[in-house]
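User: Sorry, what's this?
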Amino acid sequence: MTENGGIAARSTAPARTFNVDLTAPGRFRSGIETWFEILHDNYFPLDVKVGREFRSGLLTRVDIGEIRACTLKTDPMLTERRTSRSMPDGRDFYVVEIPRAASIRVAQRGRESVVRPGGFTVVNGAEGYTFETAQLNEVRTLRIPCRSLRARLPSLDDWVAKTRESSQPLVALFLDFAASYGQHGPALPPAHHERVEQHLLDLLVMALLGADDASSETSVRSAHRQRALRAIEQRFCDPALEPSGVARAIGVSERYLQKIFSERRETVSATIRARRILEAKRLLANRAPLRLSVTQIAYAVGFSDPAYFSRVFRQATGVSPVQYEGDAPRAPA
């Protein structure tokens, strides 16, 4: 592995480049391991598979504020995020995948998309997903803290592994800005990083929402739903939170709110419960380092009855809270 460019002060934020070249005799195994380490260090833990035709990989990284912009040039490979390894302090990331030279395949949450050059998709790095490029490719990526995007779009996971095409004006605008962000961002004074970052995130959300022409919700109802999801995100740990409280928080009637959610075959109660279960999974996966009991986790995520929590958790995951070890498939005996 070679690395060009060092770590400098945050104010200059120079690009760093990592690459492997497997053409030298005897370098295949060590080079592959090095490439896996590069991907691990610049994104998060991934399972990577490459064929014998794999010969080189190059990654250029720029950190601007809390966003990491990378350009990946690689021979064919398959990467899988098999388990939620979310951090206790919430340091999880979404990754925007922007293929430049050839199509990529992305799968998450039961959805699978082929993203062509000129489009993009988003994956949630806190959950399992698959990324594959079947030929030599260049892919731009943006690694963004989950909390930054969820603050703008609590329902962002509804959009993971869906394709957005540049034929949509908002998508084209976002892609142009993202390319410029990675190119010129490092030269910006640190005082400007946050403002430019906010513009990038706003454009990303607009590109996702504006291109979702399959949605049957009106803009008003969509706005109410987003506000309701934001209220749930802020208060789901409160055991007293009920649909009526969510409706009051956003200034609509409970009946109207339930109607909005029913258009997506959802209920407000189920949405609150699902958010609590998701947080419980995060805490249970880190139960040992956090030193939390199942009962403590039940109370922490908004359940007032630990026995009821255990029943609901088993219904949602197929295992009890005590048995839960993350979303990775268990190794065969």
Q: What stands out?
A: Residues 36 and 55 are 13 Å apart (CA to CA). The radius of gyration is 21 Å. The first helix runs from residue 28 to 42.
